Design the sequence.
């Protein structure tokens, strides 16, 4: 059967990479690049505890709660620096972290004075977050949470964060569109995702480190902006790690090592109603664009 674009339905798709677990296709009608077939089941089974201690280099983390833990904690604090000093999120603001894992970012947010909670689709991972760091992590995928009125009816967040999440979602535009109902006035979404159109991809080709079984989408800057626009968000700013470290000199050595050397990510802030007032430092980034 002729493949079609998973995003816009166009048949104008071209093969880019044939991998052992699927094929990477690019749409000629929209800016999306995606994996077929997708083997990402919408159950917790794929993202259980084994996801955080995976033997498979093409899947999950090697030792998130062991050898990588100190670095992960450091990066969680860096992301708090981004929302506090970069975005200028006020103290006591409410934050929902989607795909919270063991709750390191939720915990770091709370330590910095925010009211943060998280979602993780694997119940045992959410339980671990509560057990290890008293982080309030609900055992839900974002899709299930958006369908669960008793839990989310009172939820109105200042910021919903998706760190390395959108590339895993079957229907990212649908999820982001419905996430708007979780935002209070002036609320925003903060996204990070691997950048597809960067030097790292160009130098690695078929061996690109982000070609993984659970990465269903590969976003260029144009693709990520299109995703935000189609979901009803204005892109307040979108930038690389290089831009971030220039305006936030306090970011750690781990952040530099991970995002300037080993990985290449996009960071973007989407605002739902334009009322979100971005911090001065990120305004400087936005003005550069
Ligand atoms: Zn398309």
Sequence:
């Amino acid at each position: 059967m002729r493949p079609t674009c998973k995003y816009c339905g166009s048949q104008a798709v071209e093969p880019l990479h044939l991998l052992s677990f699927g094929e990477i296709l690019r749409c000629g009608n929209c800016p999306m690049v995606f994996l077929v077939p997708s083997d990402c089941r919408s159950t917790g089974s794929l993202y259980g505890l084994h996801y955080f201690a995976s033997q498979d280099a093409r899947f999950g983390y090697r030792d998130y709660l062991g050898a990588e833990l100190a670095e992960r904690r450091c990066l969680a604090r860096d992301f708090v620096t981004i929302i506090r000093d970069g975005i200028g999120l006020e103290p006591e603001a409410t934050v929902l972290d989607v795909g919270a894992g063991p709750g390191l970012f939720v915990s770091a947010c709370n330590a910095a004075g925010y009211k943060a909670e998280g979602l993780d689709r694997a119940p045992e991972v959410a339980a671990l977050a509560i057990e290890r760091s008293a982080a309030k992590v609900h055992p839900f995928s974002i899709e299930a949470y958006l369908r669960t009125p008793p839990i989310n009816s009172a939820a109105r967040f200042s910021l919903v964060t998706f760190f390395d999440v959108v590339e895993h979602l079957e229907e990212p535009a649908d999820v982001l569109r419905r996430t708007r109902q979780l935002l209070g006035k002036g609320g925003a979404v903060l996204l990070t995702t691997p950048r597809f159109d960067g030097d790292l991809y160009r130098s690695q080709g078929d061996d690109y480190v982000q070609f993984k079984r659970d990465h269903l989408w590969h976003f260029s800057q144009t693709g990520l902006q299109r995703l935000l626009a189609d979901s009803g968000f204005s892109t307040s700013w979108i930038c690389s790690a290089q831009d971030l470290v220039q305006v936030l000199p306090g970011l750690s050595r781990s952040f530099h090592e991970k995002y300037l050397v080993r990985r290449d990510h996009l960071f973007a802030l989407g605002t739902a109603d334009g009322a979100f007032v971005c911090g001065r430092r990120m305004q400087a980034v936005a003005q550069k664009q």
In short: DSSP finds eleven helices and eleven strands in the chain. The longest strand covers residues 183-194. The mean pLDDT is 87. The domain at 41-288 is CATH 3.40.50.150 (Rossmann fold).
